[in-house]
Amino acid sequence: MNEVSWKLFAPLSIEGATLLIEHQDLPSGMAIRLGGAGGVVLKPQEAQELLLNLLTGESWVSSRLVWAAPRLHIGQKGYNLNERAKLALIEALQSLLVESQGVAVNPMPKETWQRSLLEITQQRFASVEEALPRLGEMLISLGLKGLCLWLRDGSGRTLKPIGQYPEAALPDELQPERHPVYFQVLERNLLIAADDARQDARMNELRDILIGRGLGAVLQAVLHGEGGLRGVVWIESMQPRKWSNADETLALAVAQVIERILRPLKDEIKIQTPERKSLAVRRSEFELNLAQALSMAQRYERSLALMRIQIDGMNKAQTERAAREIAYTLRQSDSLAYLGEQGFALLLSEVRWTAGASRVAHRLLGRLRAALSGLKVGIGIAMYPQDATTVEGLWNQAEQACQASLEAGGGIRLLTPGAAELQEAISQDGLTLHFQPVFNLSDLELVAVEALARWPRPKGLHQAGEFLPLAEQVGLMSAQDRWALEKVLEQAALWRPSGVNARFSINVSTETLIDPNFPSVLQEMLSAKRLPADTLIVELREEAILSDLETTSRSLEILKHLGVLVALDNFGSNPIPLTQLKRLPIDWIKLNPALSVSENAMLAKAAIDMVHAVGAKAVAKGLEEQSQLTRMKELGADHGQGHILGWPVPAEDLGALLVWGIGS
């Protein structure tokens, strides 16, 4: 490529650094360059993939470019993309793809939807209902039927139809009581592509609505707030159709337009006084909201969370900035109070996931630290019913947790029994790892060691099953996973010079797996230890995949691209459909220990054949007796693990296990 032929399209200013966006016309089509002469050149197809992942927030890896929100790595440089910078990059790529339409993966007509959407985003709409006709006209011009939007109804979970285009009688509202399966699908996905809407099992509960609207296919973009499901927009087709990657990009872009109207950019949010209802309420009103939410939680057996947030040394401008960052996370049903020198109180009126409040707190902590660089931020969380069952009890618990956090230098703190001790054990290296061998059943050669977390306590050594449920409940799973990964890679780096060929296997949680930053963080950890990626086997359970199929599948694809091996643990306890299992990039499948029992020999044989059919290795677990070892080998299992082959050993005995294949 001719260096002088590059044309500057846009320079983006990101945290004082400049990201150059350039393009050049070649005989094969347009080339797009990010980052100048030392940057990366993308084909239009690659730029379209990057655009899709910028829109979704999902990670994307190419030869010299890694996107893992909010970090964009180009060659040797890295950029933190805030919302405004990310939007500017999205708009630039959209505009360039318009010009490269002749060679794009999915060629668009001359008046492309990207161009139309850019024109729409430049307008200001008083309400989302005002924007729907413009969006609908654009979709109809692409040969689609139109669109329909549902949004969450206040503090409830019902989704009410807000508007549609073309205009017609609005459909029925969507209720979790009438559509339980559909709501589970909504909560776990960002995009739902139903190629044949009336045959898609996920749409069974909506059959009357689909028939009434005359729909053959529907592409649904789900709107998620920081606290949960916010709404869904349907892109509709009268005939069944195969939704393409370009269609999915379109749906996500439409959803982004709607979300920008519903939730303005943080720089556009102004606060006049702490009492402004759209942002914060008086303490008395806040306590009334808390009492009402508590009553609803008790009646319907739900959970809620109260957070106390204090930031040391804020001036007036920083207080307003902090308020905007906190308000950015609010749902309609949540409530925020400004308490003067005592900081803020935040009510999450409904928390449906065990670690939901902690996840919100971690996102909020990151936003506040980025916006208020250098200031100490303390967040205390009290959960109903785990921590307290009264307004006063929740308030006191959250206050004490916040003070404990500030005294420890900031961060997030819960006072759930055992939570503080576990958090300290993770942060102060108070956990340990034991390692259990995995052998090749054909020659009993050591092929891997699995890392198992242990917690030394005064009354004995606690196994993972005794304390990891608590870690999940209070939002410590990501921290525990990070600690375990660091320790495992330390051991792998320590023994690699000895010529050890065994891999190291480690379980990761759902919370870690759905984190879009996880693949890039893991890649950095491996590079820091100078370890090849195939040294590591990442193990996950079936429920981790099923909880968010699209996100976990994408994460696994990136891990596979990096070279990390993937194992599915405890197969058979919550079976994944075979068609889906075949599409997942899984190297090992570890069978449920129950399949090693003699009465389940026929089931074990069927499971092993299924594992081999999808191209994976079958690992027999729970081998306690010689008869089980012999039987699983005869049935075709590739590898084995269990006490008959070796007990878990502490790190100090790992050398004997790796070098000689024996342990205590």
UniProtKB/TrEMBL annotation:
Pfam families: EAL (PF00563), GGDEF (PF00990). Gene3D superfamilies: 3.30.450.40, 3.30.70.270, EAL domain. InterPro entries: Cyclic-di-GMP_PDE-like, EAL_dom, EAL_sf, GAF-like_dom_sf, GGDEF_dom, Nucleotide_cyclase, Rev_trsase/Diguanyl_cyclase. This is Phytochrome-like protein cph2. Residues 415-662 form the EAL domain. Residues 302-418 form the GGDEF domain. CDD domains: EAL. The lineage of its organism: Bacteria, Thermotogati, Deinococcota, Deinococci, Thermales.
